[in-house]
Amino acid sequence: MKWKEFLIAALLMLQFGSIYASGSMNVSENDSTLAPKITGVNDFVWLTDWNYASLDRMSMLVNTGDYGFYGPQPMFMLDSIPFEPSFFGVAYSQFFPVPHFQTHQKELISGHGVINGIRYQSGIMRLRSEPLKDGFSVFASGQYGHNSGEPGPWVFDPERVSPNVERFGPWINGGVSLKFGNWYAKGLLKFQEYKHVDEFVQLRMLNSRRSPTDPAEWLGVDTRSVLTLAETGFEGSMISIKLQAYQAESEDFLFFQPFAREIPSELTMNQYSASTDLKLHRRLGIRGLYQLREQGLGYRLNRFDHNFDWQKETHNMHGSVYFSGERFSAEAGAALENRSVQAPGLSDYDLDIMSLFLDQQVQVIPQIALSANAQVSFLDDERAIQIGGNLLLKPTSFWGMDLGASYSELLPEVANPLDHQVRNGYYIFQHLEIPFQLPEQIKNTRKISLSTSQRFFSAHTFSLGFNAEWMHHISMNIPFQAALYDLEYSTIPGNYSLLSEISGQRLQAGAELQFVPLRNMIHQADVTITRTLSGGAEYEAYWKMIPEVLVQYAIEYTPFYDVYLALNLQYRSEATWSEFSNLDGELNRTFHVQYPFRFFEFSDTTPSHFKIDLKMGKWFWGNRLRGELLLKNLLNTNYQTHPLGVRERFGYMARVEMRF
After folding, report:
1. Burial, 631: exposed, middle or buried (Cβ in 10 Å; 0-12, 13-18, 19+)?
2. Which of 285, 323, 57 is nearest to 192 (CA)?
3. Mean pLDDT over each residue of the chain, to the nearest integer
4. CB 567 within 8 A of CB 614
5. Which helix (H) or strand (E) covers residue 55, if one does?
6. pLDDT, position 23
7. Integer Cα distance of 155 and 153 in angstroms
8. How far is residue 144's CA from residue 169's CA, in Å, rounded to a whole number?
9. Could you tell me which of 374, 396, 491, 390 has the C-alpha nearest to residue 434?
10. In degrees, to the nearest 5, what angle opens at C-alpha 360 toward C-alphas 358 and 361?
11. How remote is the C-alpha of 144 from its chain's centroid?
12. What CATH number should be reported for the domain holding residue 495?
């Protein structure tokens, strides 16, 4: 029997399951609405072992630890309903159907598993919004800020650009809710605006946004997004029903990795969801979810007439039966995903992916629990298997440990969807004049991992955890663009290739600490260290994009019931992006006529940094009015998470919120 078949058989024989059976889990929760923990994209992965890279502080590439920045991105879920904010691997926070500050809880889980009848394959970011108040409620908020090379004057004239001010806003949010007994309804409106001024980003965007008919006409480099949401539901003891619809659109710039720079684009998203949870017995129930999701990448005026002309429609259906006993719980179900894409060169691109899953858990004795999950996906004659298991031990009242193992396969349509579409005829690379090379056949992405964690805790005042995970990437398909330097546009695309069947081994270890010395004070710290143990040059170069050391510390203090202070400290080691090695040492320059003319130097390495952020806020008028001020990067040092991205120095964000 081959080793893979032995591993599959052994884990399936255990017959046990857990929602975090195959990966690490990070949880953060607001105890109240007093101090919101989410104010920007970096906060979504704050105090976790996940990493992010952002070019504009609005969008982000996410590394869950499983497949890197260019691998499969995690699933996103809000209040048990999945949503998709990503376009070709770039997640846009504007498309999160909740204002940042109303995110009540975040839970980040790596690996694969099942949550409430929904399967995920490459990590999940699970968000919960603030609980609704009884009766009628309404809120409105606005915020404005800037990031600058140094603290500078405010500029309110939209026709002018100041050399040291980057306008970040305004953001306007409004919502209304009704809640009577078990029934509720709510609506949301989000409007966000951002003007790109940073020299590293502005040069590329201004040159692409010239008028195609009049090269002397310069178009705006701002982005505007609007999101609306309507939801109603009933949450009873025996039945729960949710109906949700949300629509979002954004005039934006999509950083297209195969092109090595941004493309002006119109991003659209429509999603309609219906979910139910029916208890047939106090221990037995069924769950179901249906979703229709429509995504689009359209044309935004630019000098080259670049246009993705891409529309994707997805129907998702999930159904499961679950049992929850005192010592044993299980959930089994099926999912069907119909995915169709319309784009130039594609014909009849219609996929039906069928999946079966099983998730189980058994409490052997109070000190020992066993868990496992299994998933299998089918597409025509293709198949992908994911299995995982954990042994959970609690030797004493203050010590717990977890031993885990998993094996994961991902279909190429899931792991490398863009390359699969191009392989099937989508001629976006020809349209953008990108020289490219793809393998004749894109094979499954495969990975095995072994993990362990230890946790020590004392009541509610102290907890200390250690974790480590060894990963063997048996086969990865890594996108690589050998970007070339160009003075006018910063970059032009070099040869794009999908590096197929790349293998290697990684080790990730970390520690986390939480200490509550006072009822109104909490200390938290998280340390993550990663290493590449083996692999070829391409594998090692890919993982150098991830910083090897990440240290984060936070202290929150509420001296009075309506006043809060928060201090965040972070150290992040350098990271090297080999695809930008041709730019290393080349010059960039300021472009706007109101900027003093200066040259800057590109680097393929984001520097290590130490960053300090300070947040303070106060409630007024019986907790109806809140003012908040965020001061970022107090040391005024260059903070860059992407070699072509914004270089964040000192910045501020001021926000006012009113609730009734």
Report:
1. middle
2. 57
3. 89
4. yes
5. none
6. 56
7. 6
8. 5
9. 491
10. 170
11. 23
12. 2.40.170.20
What is the tens place of the pLDDT at every residue in 413-433?
999 999 999 999 999 999 999
Please tell me the distance from the alpha carbon of residue 107 to that of residue 20, in angstroms, as a whole number: 11
Phi–psi pair at 95, nearest 5 degrees: -100, 10
Q: What is the mean pLDDT of residues 86-98?
A: 96
Paired tokens of 104: 């009540």
The CA–CA distances, whole Å, from 592 to 162, 196, 220 equal 10, 11, 12
Q: Residue 398 has what DSSP assignment? A: T
Place of tokens 């201090």: 567
200-257 confidence digits (pLDDT tens): 777 788 778 877 877 777 777 788 999 999 999 999 999 999 999 999 999 999 999 9
Q: Answer yes or no: are the C-beta atoms of 658 and 142 closer than 8 Å.
A: no
Alpha-carbon distances of 553 from 355, 396, 570, 612, 652, rounded to whole Å? 41, 28, 6, 10, 20
Cα distance between residue 214 and residue 69, in whole Å = 38
The residue type found at 87 is: F
Q: What is the distance of C-alpha 55 from the center of its chain?
A: 14
Domain hosting residue 231, numbered range: 3-659
CA–CA separation, 356 vs 379, rounded Å?
12
Task: Give the rounded distance of the alpha carbon of 257 from its chain centre.
Answer: 17
pLDDT tens-digit profile of 266-314? 999 999 999 999 999 989 999 999 999 999 999 999 989 999 999 999 9
The pair of structure tokens assigned to 610 is: 């130490």
Mean pLDDT along residues 89-97: 96
Give the whole-angstrom CA distance, residue 144 versus residue 160: 17
Q: How far apart are CA 431 and CA 3, in angstroms?
A: 45
Quote the tokens at residue 488. Answer: 């006018």
Distances (CA, A) of 463 to 30, 68, 460, 516, 519: 18, 29, 8, 9, 15
pLDDT class for 565, splitting at 50, 70, 90?
very high
Rounded to 10 degrees, the C-alpha dihedral 320/325/327/333 comes to -10
- CB-side neighbour CA atoms (13 Å) of 593: 3
Using CA atoms, how far apart are residues 270 and 310, in angstroms rounded to an integer? Answer: 14
Dihedral angle, C-alpha 132, 133, 135, 139, nearest 10 °: -80
Q: How many domains does the chain have?
A: 1
Cα 485 to Cα 45, 333, 641: the distances in Å are 32, 51, 20
Task: Tokens 């968000």: give the residue.
Answer: 127
Residue 361 neighbours by CB under 8 Å, 6+ apart: 16, 17, 18, 328, 329, 330, 369, 370, 371
- b/e burial code for range 85-111 (CB count within 10 A of at least 16 → b): bbbbbbbbbbbbbbbbbbbbebbbbbb
Whether residue 170 has a cis bond before it, omega within 30° of 0: yes
Q: What residue type is 498 in one-letter code? A: L
Query: What is the Cα–Cα distance from 302 to 580, expressed in whole angstroms?
Result: 24
Contacts of 622 (CB under 8 A, 6+ apart): none
* Vertex 29 angle, CA 27 and 30, to 5°: 165
pLDDT tens readout for residues 458-474? 877 999 999 999 999 99
- Rounded to the nearest 5°, which phi and psi values hold at 426? -65, 115
Contact 408, 446 (CB under 8 A): yes
State the amino acid at position 194 in one-letter form. Answer: Y
Annotate 515-541 with three-state secondary structure: EEEECCEEEEEEEEEEEEEEECHHHHH
> How many whole angstroms separate alpha carbon 456 and alpha carbon 459?
10
Q: What is the pLDDT of residue 501?
A: 95
What does the pLDDT read at residue 197?
67
Residue pair 86/74 in contact (Cβ under 8 Å)? The answer is: no
